[in-house]
Fold this sequence. Notes:
The protein contains 8 helices and 10 strands.
Amino acid sequence: MRILAVDTTTWTGSVALLEDAKLVCEVNWESRSSHASRLLSSVDHVLEAGGIQIRDVDGFSVAVGPGSFTGIRIGLSTVKALAFASRKPVAAVSTLRALALKLAGPRTDLLCPALDAKKGEIYAALYQNRAGELAEAVAQGAYAPADFFRKLRARGIIHFIGTGADVYRAEITDALGEKARFSRRSPFIGYEVGRLGYEELKNGRGLDGKDVEPLYFRKSQAEEKH
């Protein structure tokens, strides 16, 4: 199964082509403004590297959030258009789950992806790694950092990743002390989005592109002003 995976939910963008769960090609970039100018050219690049055309893709996987409202819309609208044109299914993947997957290994049990949501909040969750399967131990959502970190105090060693962990590192250390571990893995998650999408698609849980919805945990600025 050939899967085209897309993530534009944060300032790091990523497109990956997978054959089942195996990575064929991945393109990563950083953009503090917009992913629109890089996304389609990156799709073209991974397809060319894989020696295929868009009609040869069996399904799509897209990170639907949480993250940047603009970034989520760019990735989602692009994948929806490609899925509509090719009539192929789409797997909707949580950005936080994909980040956690980067840390899943034989020596990591509790995984905490955290994104800086601005306005004094983080998007975060706590996952338990059970032989590579991720189970939510604390539900993903938008949290006040201090409130969220307090939820983690009674647990064991926790591995952190993401911009929220970078911004609130001191607060995490104050709350958890030596139980906190900070990852040096890259923030790019195209491959992980593809891996999680593959599990959905191979089990028949792919969606029609028009039915894929963004994963927001709060209103956008425009909605708040309205």
